[in-house]
Amino acid sequence: MPLKNKIEELKKRKEEVLQGGGEQAVAKQVAMGKLTARERIIALLDEDSFNEYDMFVEHEARDFGMDGKTLHGDGVIIGTGSIYGAPVAVFAQDFTVAGGSLGFMHARKITKIMDYALRMRIPLIGINDSGGARIQEGVNSLAGYGEIFWRNTLSSGIIPQISVILGPCAGGAVYSPALTDFVFVVDKISKMFITGPEVIKSVLGEEISQEDLGGAKVHAMITGNAHFYSESEFECFEQIKKLITFIPWNNTRKARRFEPKDPKSVFNINEIVPGDSKQPYDVRNVIRAIVDDSDFFEIQEMWAGNIVIGFGRLNGETVGFVANQPMVMAGVLDVDSSDKAARFIRYCDAFNIPLCTLVDLPGYLPGIDQEHAGVIRHGAKLLYAYSEASVPKMTVILRKAYGGGYIAMSSRHLRADFVFAWPGAEIAVMGPEGAANIIFRKEITEAENPDEMRRKKVEEYKEKFANPYVAAAKGYIDTVIEPEETRKLLLHALEVSSTKVADRPFKKHGIPPF
Amino acid sequence: MSLSRLDNKVLTAFIPGTIVDVKVKVGQEVKQGDILVILDAMKMHNRILAPVNSKVKEVNVKSGDRVCKGFIMVVLE
Fold first, then answer.
1. Looking at the 3D structure of chain A, how many domains does it have?
2. Which residue spans within A434-483 are E strands per DSSP?
């Protein structure tokens, strides 16, 4: 056969695979309001950058009518491409082929691209759209999930791993996304749960829809399993592309440097934080007043809003921001906000992203439900993460920093490299009311007018301790600064800490309070 | 089963506190982000905002009231 004919045959074979699950299945996918796996890859990656591998892989199952059945690509597409020029490895499950079910070869394709991503030290993006295990392939299918989880764990902290949930992702399958760094969900399309509505109904008799049990909003607002929520697949891909610009290819590199830009003048740092410490404000505007181009890329925006996390740039360099949010639940630390911040801090530390912490909080949230939900164990994660992090750590105390909250929020004692405080900062062991009630209990109870005496003593305490100068006198904060000096000082701090050495004793790994 | 944690039209106190101010009346139209109630708790005058454009259906607090955790302060339609 002449070469020309062989090339024709190759084209024909490719053409066939590109049909996916065929016209009908594709029409069904479209009717569900979803893009096909190939359309998704094209929308996500740079134009013409995608190279597919294992296109001609076939399953080897022989039982339950699988013999002789053709499943193109075995229901998953793998390959490499780029996003704004940064190389990425991708897999996308194809729901049009046997419902994207995970058989042995399907899993082997996924693990192949995972191995490739780890070997080449490039980010991995997984697009999940699958009915689950391929029942006909039995334990081989389960083995496939296990192999994926093992590789997720092996790659964790070495390459960025991103999961995009664009369809059902149920049972064991959800644990792969849970092991990755960032999970993206899209309204009405993403569904994640361990046991679905049918099982819940048959075992417990409770009825709930897929959407209410594990839809995009549930994971973006209630469980915290998702990091990014969007209304459409295209919006979701834009978020992923933006995220890729903020993070490095792997843990031996720094994130890409961008052209430095000044913050936008609409964010006037002198006018955001009210002088009265009882007045709330949006701390994200303080971040916007500090970062390049006022561009703050928030993560887990809809969950545990009492702490804000995300990326911004200082002088072109990516910095991870952690900030108490006074306008949500007074900015308290609790179970969820501790979990949220701790995981983000560990992400930044693993990927050489300096941390900037903005402090304004009344402390930990009191309450029986918090104590019984294990706020001790969860709150400890925050202490652990900050103490462990060896990237440059910069702290700015904007206003309140009391008690355990002061220590937890990247204090000097947990080895912050730079601690700045604004003149309105109140750094003390506890709030004036509480402190005065304890210290002056006798005077207050024995006074002729206890309320009057309490007010007097609270004022006395406030004057003496609710300021930054007691902490400054001990060297716990490095300097008291004017708000408008903040950016300049952070840029300087970043510059002088670029060669930071943080030697730690050898250990296999620590044991954080998971 | 109702999905109460996503049902953002029932505004409850996240912690015990004192009502400092009530900005709305029953029947009043509110826009997303409008202040409904100010709750003094955790050393903060917490602004309880309208999560969506709606109309006020119930107001269960007045200035000076002490509320317990989970107390339903305002219900929107």
1. 3
2. 479-480
Cα–Cα distance between A335 and A246 in angstroms, integer? 27
Q: Going along A85-135, which residue ranges are E strands?
A: 86-93, 124-128
Query: Do residues A477 and A342 share a domain?
Result: yes
Could you tell me which of A139, A150, A53 has the C-alpha nearest to residue A102?
A139
Closest CA of chain A from B10, distance in Å: 16
- A49: how many CB neighbours lie within 10 A of its CB? 16
Residues A436 and A375 in one domain: no
pTM here is 0.95
Q: Output the CA torsion A353→A355→A356→A358 (10° steps).
A: 140
DSSP for A17-61, written as a single string: HHTTT-HHHHHHHHHTT---HHHHHHHHSPTT--EEE-TT-----
Determine the CATH number of domain B13-76.
2.40.50.100
Q: Strand pairing partners for A169?
A: A192
| ipTM field | 0.90
pLDDT tens column, A313-350: 999 999 999 999 999 999 999 999 999 999 999 999 99
Could you give the count of Cα atoms lying within 13 Å of A256 in the half-sphere of its Cβ? 13
List beta partners, residue A191: A168, A215
State which residues form the domain around A289.
Answer: 269-428+467-496
Looking at the complex, does the CB of residue B31 fall below 8 Å from at least one CB of chain A? no
**For chain B, domain boundaries:** 13-76
Query: Which B residues, 48 through 77, put their C-beta within 8 Å of a C-beta on chain A?
Result: 69
Burial B1-21 (b: 16+ CB within 10 A, else e): eeeeeeeeeebebbbbbebbb
Q: Give the three-class secondary structure for A387.
A: helix
pLDDT in tens, A191-203: 999 999 998 999 9
Nearest to A367 among B43, B46, B69 (CB): B69
